[in-house]
Fold:
Amino acid sequence: MIRTARLESRSQVILEQVPHTDVLSVGLWNVCGSRDETGPQAGFSHFLEHMLFKGTARRSAFEIAREAERVGGFLNAFTEKEVTCFYCTLPAEHAELAVDLLTDMYFHSVLDAREIQKEKAVVVNEIQTAEDNPEEKGHQLYLEGIWDGHALSRKITGETAEVEAIRRAELESFYRERFSPANTVVTASGGLQPDALLESLYRRFPAGTDPGPAPPGRSAPERRRSWELRRDKFEQVQVYTGISYASSRRSEEYYLDLVFNTLFGESMSSRLFQNLREDKGLCYTVYSFRSYFTDVSLWTIYASTTPRTLAPLLDGLEAELARLRSEPPSHKEIDDAKSQIRGGMILAKEDMENRMKRLFRMHHLTDRVAEHEESLALLEGVGRDAVLRLVDGLIRPESFNLIAYGSKGMRKLRRASFSF
Structure:
């Protein structure tokens, strides 16, 4: 059962009590991410993700790591373009420890100057590792091509020079402004006692504090048309192609997207994988995926191939997109996709971390959180007519961007767009 509450500090709390489990996952979500940084703040959100593990007035970095691990649990964090999350998964009997540890890290980091200098080297290493990863580098170039300088197209980590230029005073000011209770959502799933967990949060969240200035307002990116071949030192070719479109905050639209993407490219039994890899052998990896933000969505196809097979792969992609109209998804394809998703949702119920993250994702993207049974009903309600309307409305050749990134052996692209 899902229960919502709001603390005196104005923080939103979403709790899901799950019977018959001894596991608990608790997350503190800051509703600001890399897209909410100004130019001089580039990389600050991600850098703070690292720094909040480096010590508080009450705990050293070692003690932060040890306290969760000594009871068999773990701490982790991640930064995205719209959120930063810190979470702890551990035996449910240690719920008080999870709340105390997370709130201490989140609100009371000391941002030690020596640790900042050490962590700069760590983050620069992370940035350079991504630069050496052709799949990650290709995806970054794809975003830059489609959104041309918009905050959503920037690296979450920031660039090396931006990280090296971080000063403690500016970082601390950003931390105090952004990591306020008013900008925080708490989600928890598992063997929790809602009243006890809420009481623990009430005691540890700063109450009556100044919420600080609001983050800069968000503006949706405008799509820039780009169709590019980018040569580099890698042997393989990374292909990204897809469309950018306005987000819907309706739960029904989310499940419609999910069904379409599953049948087209998200699994081994999908059209993309079966036809381009299994039947034609044009690539090792091929799939499609969805990226959701509060005001815009991306639907992307990714493939990894060789210079020799790049041209036939693009022909094959175009043919599969065209086939969505010449051979529209059948009732059976749609039913099979729904059955696959339903099974995945049932398996995911056993993972408390997954459930905890689901609570926030639904709240963030749709402003409401559905119980598991309601989600299954929304999935079941997706019909063939809706899938065909989605195809007709979104899958248009002029809407696609593309980048082929990699081997110097690539030949010039024979087309500047799809023409299906």
